[in-house]
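Quick question, first post here. What does this chain look like in 3D?
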Amino acid sequence: MRKIKILLAALTTIGATHPAISSDLLETYHAAQSQDAVIAAARAARRAGQEKLAQGRSLLLPSVNLSANSTYNDSTIQYKNNFFFPSGTNRYNSSGYGVNLVQPLYNRQNWTIYSESELQVLQSDAQFGNAEQDLILRVAQAYFDILMAQDNVQLAEAQKIAISEQLEQAKRNFEVGTSTITDTHEAQARHDLTNAQEIAARNNLEIKKRTLQQLTNAMPSGLRQLGQQFKPEMPQTSDMEKWVDEAQQHNLQLVVAQAAAELAEKEVVRNHAGHYPTLDLVANHSQSYANGSNYGVGSDNRTTAIGVQLNLPLYQGGAIQSRLREAEANRDRAREELENVRRNIALQVRQAYLGVVDGVAQVKALQQALKSSESVLEASKLGQEVGVRTNLDVLNAQQQLYSTRRDLYQAEYSYLVSQLRLKAAAGTLSEDDLTKVNQALYQGNTEQELVRK
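> Answer (accepted):
Ran it through. C-alpha cells below.
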C-alpha cells in the first residue's frame, strides 16, 4: 500500500520541481513580437506596400524636370567665297538651363494604376494582419510543445522510478522463491525501455526549446504550465456554419485573395486603355548664354512655351493586344485562386471547429480514463500482494496509466491551440484571445509554485 501511495503521489505532483515561473504565454508572445524575424519581415513588407499609394498618385500629378548645361566650344571653320564672315578658330563658352512641366489631363491607364495602388495597400495591410495572427499561432504551438515535452520527461522519470521499485521487488521475490526469473526479466525490460524513452523525451524537449528560441531570440526557461482547474469549454457559437459565414467576411487570407482578383480585373482595364489617347499639358522654359559663336558674336536666348499634347497609339506591333490577352488570362487565374481560397477557408473553419468540439469531449473522456487507470493500477498492486495478479499485470497497469496521462496532456494542449486556430480561420484572432488562453495557465496555480495535475 505504501508503494501505491508513493507512485500516485509522484503522478499527481509532476512539475513541482520546476524553477520559479519566469514567463507565461502572453509574455512569450510579446517577446516574439519584437524578436521574430518573420513578423519583422512582414512589418517591412507592409511599409513597402503602403508606398504603392504615393506612387500611384504621382502619376496624376505634374512632373517637373530641370536640365542645365555648360559647354566649352573649340570650333575651326573655313568659309569659301564668303567676304562677310571671317574664317578661323573660335573658342567660347556656352551654358543654359531649361524647366519642363507635364501635367496629365487625360490618361486612363494612370487612373487605373492609381486605383490599383489602393488595392495594393489594402492587400499589404491584410497580409500583415495575417502574419500577426500566424505569429500568435506559432508562439502558442511552440509554447505548448515545450510544455508537452516537459510533461513527457517528467512522466518518463516518474515511470522509471515506479518500474525501478517493481524491478527491485521482483528481484527480492525471486530470491525468496515467491516469483520466477521471468518477472525480473519483464521488469528489467520495461526499465530499459523507459530509459530509452526518457533520453528521447529529453532530446525532444531541447528541440522544442530551440524552436521557441527562434521566435523570441532567447532560450525559454521556467514556462508556466497548465493550471489544475483547467476545464475545456465549447465554442460560444455552437453553429459551425455561422463560423464559416464569419470567415467568408473577415478571414484575412480571403481578403488578400479578393484584392488579388480585383487587381487582376483592373489590369485588364489598364491594358485595354493602351488603345486610348492621352492628353497632357506641356510647358517649358529655357535660357541659354554664349560668349561667342562660329560667327564671332555671342548670344542670349530665352524661350517659353505652353501647350497641349495629344498622343494616340496607332500600331505597336501587336504588343497591346498581347498584353490584354495576358491580363485576361491572369484575371481568370485569380478568380479560380480566389474560389480555391474560399473553399479552403471553409474547410479550415470546419476542421478547427470540430477540433475544439472533439477536444472538449476527448479531454473529458481522458480525465475519466485517468481515474479508471489509477484504480486499475491500485487494484493490480493489491492483487499482486495477495497473489491474484502477476508482476506483468502491474507493469501493464503502470504503462496504461502513464499513456493515459500523456494522452490527456496532449489533448488539453491541442484543444487550446484549436481554439486559436478557429478564431484565426474566422479572421477574428487577436491578442485578447491569446490572453484568454493564457488565463488557463493561472487557474489553480499560485505565483510561487506550479503543480501539474
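The chain has two domains: 2-59+107-275+317-439, 63-106+278-311.
The beta strands are 63-77, 88-106, 278-290, 299-311.
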